[in-house]
Amino acid sequence: MMSSSYSASFNLRQFYENEWNEHLHAAQNTHQAMFTAFTECVETAAFALQHGKKLLFFGNGGSAADSQHLAAELTVRFKKNRKALPALSLATDTSVLTAIGNDFGFTDLFSRQIAALGQEGDVAIGISTSGTSPNILQAFAEARNRKLLTIGFTGESGGNFHGNVDIILAVPSKTVARIQEMHITLGQMLIGALEYRLGLHE
Asked: First CA to last CA across the chain, in angstroms?
């Protein structure tokens, strides 16, 4: 039986077309705007990996899932089998996350891990659609204090990343879903480019 809350006026075809159009518009704008920042991101990450350093990914919610996804593609594989690359997601260890949240507070969630694991020359890659997440900003502050390089994936305004992050990939969109879609696209492009840049694609 059809739910009484079902909206007969909802036009699924129109919704479908609108979502695709908005996605394609965001993709086109990102394509046009992001090459310089993307290049800096690739070169920074490649230099670190070439010198025995690691990449530390972190984010909240969907961005936590992206950080886990991208770290896995570096440590395991992307397109082809090749040597493992050192990368960690700081959003996956439930014991660490709950202990930090309980004992120190949610704002310390990632900065505490950077204090424990980050070394000079590592790259801290934070993902926040708004660019205003307190725990992401605190993690960047800790990273910079420890002389890690910092890369931020965010949305159109950049939020508070400006002045606090070395390289900013600000997707030119205000819609969270579209920003997240561009983040995982750019993230996977980063992994693919690193494989080529490090001579691991063959």
From this structure: 56
Instruction: In whole angstroms, give the CA distance from residue 176 to residue 157.
Output: 12
Three-state DSSP class for residue 89: strand
Residue 141, Cβ neighbours under 10 Å: how many?
Answer: 14
- Encoding tokens for residue 187? 């993230």
Domains of the chain by start residue, with CATH:
35-197 (3.40.50.10490)
Residue 13's contacts (CB-CB under 8 Å, 6 or more residues apart) are none
| pLDDT string in tens for the chain (202-residue length) | 455 577 778 999 999 999 999 999 999 999 999 999 999 999 999 999 999 999 999 999 999 999 999 999 999 999 889 999 999 999 999 999 999 999 999 999 999 999 999 999 999 999 999 999 999 999 999 999 999 999 999 999 999 999 999 999 999 999 999 999 999 999 999 999 999 999 997 6
Provide the whole-model pTM.
0.94
